[in-house]
Design a protein that fits this description.
Order of helices and strands of chain A: EHEEHEEHEEHE
Largest sheet of chain A: 4 strands, antiparallel
Strand order of the largest sheet of chain A: 2-3-1-4
Helix content of chain B: 25-40%
Helix content of chain A: 25-40%
Number of strands of chain A: 8
Strand content of chain B: 15-25%
Number of helices of chain A: 4
Oligomer: heterodimer
Strand order of the largest sheet of chain B: 3-2-1-4-5-6
Number of helices of chain B: 12
Amino acid sequence: MADSEMTQQAYTIRLELADEPGQLLAALAPIADAGGNLLSIFHERGNITPRGRIPVVVDLECPPDRFAGLVDRVRSAGVNVVEAGADRLAETTQMLITGPGVAADLDQLLSGVHADDAWTITGLDVRTPAGPAGDATVVLELTVSDGDLATVRATLVQLLPASAVLIEPLEPGGP
Amino acid sequence: MRLAIVGAGSVGRAVLNQASQRGHSVVAIADSSAAAVDPDGLDAAEILRRKAQEGQVGSAAPDTLFEAPYDVLVEATPTTLESAEPGFGHVERALSADRDVVLANKGPVAERYQDLQALVDGSAGRVRFEATVAGAIPVMATIAAYGPAQVSAVRGILNGTANFILTRMASESLAYDHVLAEAQELGVAEADPSFDVDGTDAALKCVIIANVLSQGDQIHRLAEADITGIEAIPTSAHQAARDAGKTIRLVGEVGEDGVRVGPRLVPVDDPLAVTGTENIVRLELADAGPMHLAGRGAGGPETAAAVLADIDRLAE
């Protein structure tokens, strides 16, 4: 079947690249390899994120059934995909974790939080206890690609010790 | 109206004190050990003096209150959970005699809403309970003004003790135990502050709101609420929140998922981020959008003002 006979759907993906040579090529090559037609690329070098990354917005076309595979290829190339899709909104939110047990389990908590691919950690603030009687506090800044904050909460609760307190924002995603 | 006041704590005494100024007469008052009854109206100053000096309001048996010729029973005994006794029993006696009831006691409305409705259905008496939620702030009156069906969600700061502790910890970077002791010295927290700091008090108020909004379709009780208190939040959490542009508040919510009370990250400039002991309630109205009501949510005179507002409505 010739490509021109397959339905092409327009998509937007948002990437965050490390500020290193060759990063942009590393991101775009998998897209082309997966059969996507690049329509436009907006490379915001002047707009560095808090973690020192460069936002790139790519508009592309590909058949709908190829899109998920295309995104996987980009991720497999080690590129951070913040948002992928036409109608999905990325929401950035902050979660504060504190209380007894957090200091003792800090390494495990942070590994668990980084390992989950339902979200991207864009910021991390860790306060360790001042003395033996103090408790640790962790503030996570997360970008959730499909805006599903209820799942984020449920997953975090499973990672945390029972004595910990999870303090969520009042308006998820901000007012 | 002629009032019979059950409970001579700060709210009961304040109702006694304010009643005559509002054109009402107190014909009976009872505390846990005794009652004072006078069909021609009690002398408030005398009763208050006796209570202060002797620890009880009079010399008659407490039950004699129910034989007095009253129009409205004011239920101001301490809130109790589950069976909500003895408060529920007092309400039952008044309604069985076709008298009106005004509640400051949250127990019957939060824990036995369905039973309360049944009593009201079988009585010529009416029940009002503005004083059970956020003291002087007219939450119930505002919901009634627009109609419960118009209110899709409610959230707010409903416990001044917890809010005071959180705001002091944040502004002064003090430890929890230190601020709690401070609050107790100021009379902002009780000797046993459990219900305030563990979220129970805020949850009871949210359960009451949930029952009113459900209009009988769903009965809410404390046991089903999702509650997290403030006792485990250390000073480092407040500092971290501040650096993220947020502040931590104990927020109560009533929505589609029921009642939830817990500490939340609130933007520093959000209207909901009231300080000190103040309370605020945000109603989401279908046609008018978000509406904020703020003011003093607790205190004898403040709560008594809400009780007397209800009595005035019954008198119309």
